[in-house]
Amino acid sequence: ELQQKVEETELLKMELQMLETERVRLSLVEEKLMDVLQLLQQLRDLNISKRALGKILLSTLESCSDPQPGKAQLFEVLDTLQQELAACELLHKQPLEQAQSRRSLSNPLVISC
């Protein structure tokens, strides 16, 4: 009976470790998603065309099509999309102080349609 309790305890420890690992992974995905949403908000404020945004999205999906589907690919797609959006020329054409004031005045978590 004692051996069974030890085995159950070990199993619970492993499950707890797996849950903690998943929590950290989800936290990273959430942060990356927030970065992507903030960039999308900035581009929307700059009136980026749907065609240009579509090209960025398709480019991202094409560059991430090789790896195996799953959790790692999700983060890779978000990371690549964030990089593609950050590299968008429209974001770099606006004056620096305008960009900073726009970021500080608006709530980056709210995207109205």
Explain what the structure shows.
With 113 residues, the chain is mainly alpha-helical. It has a domain of 63 residues. It is built from five helices and no strands. Helix 1 runs parallel beside helix 3. The longest helix has 44 residues. The relative contact order is 0.13. The C terminus is likely disordered.
Short synopsis of the structure:
The chain is mostly helical. The protein has five helices and no strands.
The tally of strands reads 0
Mean of residue pLDDT? 82
- Judging from the principal axes of the Cα atoms, what is the shape? elongated
| Helix share bin | over 70%
Keywords: Coiled coil
InterPro entries: CCD48 (IPR031601)
Protein name: EFCC1 protein
Organism: Origma solitaria
Features:
113 residues, disordered C terminus, 0% strand, CCD48, mainly alpha, coiled coil, EFCC1 protein
Draw up the topology in text.
Blueprint: H1 2-45, H2 50-63, H3 71-86, H4 89-93, H5 96-105
Helix pairs in contact: 1-3, 2-3
